[in-house]
TrEMBL record:
Region annotation Disordered: where it falls in the sequence: 1-21
InterPro entries, sorted: UDG_Type-4/5, Uracil-DNA_glycosylase-like, Uracil-DNA_glycosylase-like_sf
Protein name according to UniProt: Uracil-DNA glycosylase
Residue stretches spanning the membrane: none
Record-level GO BP terms: DNA repair
High-level lineage: Archaea, Methanobacteriati, Methanobacteriota, Stenosarchaea group, Halobacteria
Length: 210
């Protein structure tokens, strides 16, 4: 099903509960990009992956810029770093709200916003989920696969691999701030291989032919 919307920021009008935030920060970093994307980039929260100043996921920080440069090289991303345009790519966070001092959300705060994240993920209905970092990867594997109990959450080993989910193909991404020599190229090579294949979703099961 195609989403009919020309909104690139918060296309489904999510309104989670906000708290007071630091001066100059957005109340939240809403989902952003192509609402009909095949690729869905998933971060943790604005304090770690950016966007508190710009309002756009994975912008305004070295970590975010490092990651989006890989997607820019593959023509998912264009235009200015702080106001990028996404093509066939949607990005959001497990916890979208900006918290004072960029602190880590509590377990209760993650739980409170989980339903908003889940609703947006299902509305986008992308083929490829790309969780960034340990927390986002853990959440996606627990909620959208039956394999979490069999997978050790070792991000250096999981980085840029393929994991079958319930209707999705999942490609975990190691925190860009922790990337070593080959991590950038491993991610780029994996994305190129997916793009060059005939990826599609059939009867709710993500498959790749090629």
């Amino acid at each position: 099903m195609e989403n009919v919307t020309d909104r690139t920021s918060n296309p489904f009008g999510m309104r989670p509960p906000f708290e007071r935030q630091d001066p100059g920060s957005h109340v939240a970093v809403f989902g952003y990009g192509d609402a009909n994307a095949d690729f869905h980039l998933i971060g943790d929260h604005p304090g770690i992956h950016g966007g508190e100043r710009t309002g756009i996921p994975f912008t305004g920080t070295h970590t975010g810029n490092t990651l989006l440069e890989v997607f820019r090289e593959l023509e998912f991303v264009s235009a200015d770093r702080d106001e990028p345009l996404f093509s066939n790519l949607f990005a959001n966070y497990v916890h979208m709200c900006c918290l004072r001092g960029g602190r880590v959300p509590t377990t209760g705060e993650y739980d409170e916003l989980e339903r908003y994240f889940d609703a947006e993920l299902r509305a986008i209905n992308a083929h490829i989920l790309l969780p960034v970092g340990k927390h986002a990867t853990d959440h996606i594997l627990r909620e959208y696969t039956t394999q979490r109990h069999r997978i050790e959450l070792a991000m250096p080993q999981l980085h840029a691999t393929e994991i079958r989910g319930r209707g999705f193909l999942i490609v975990p991404i190691r925190e860009p701030s922790e990337w070593e020599d080959t991590d950038r190229e491993r991610l780029r090579a994996r994305l190129e291989a997916i793009l060059e294949s005939d990826y599609r979703q059939t009867k709710g099961v993500a498959t790749r032919i090629g």
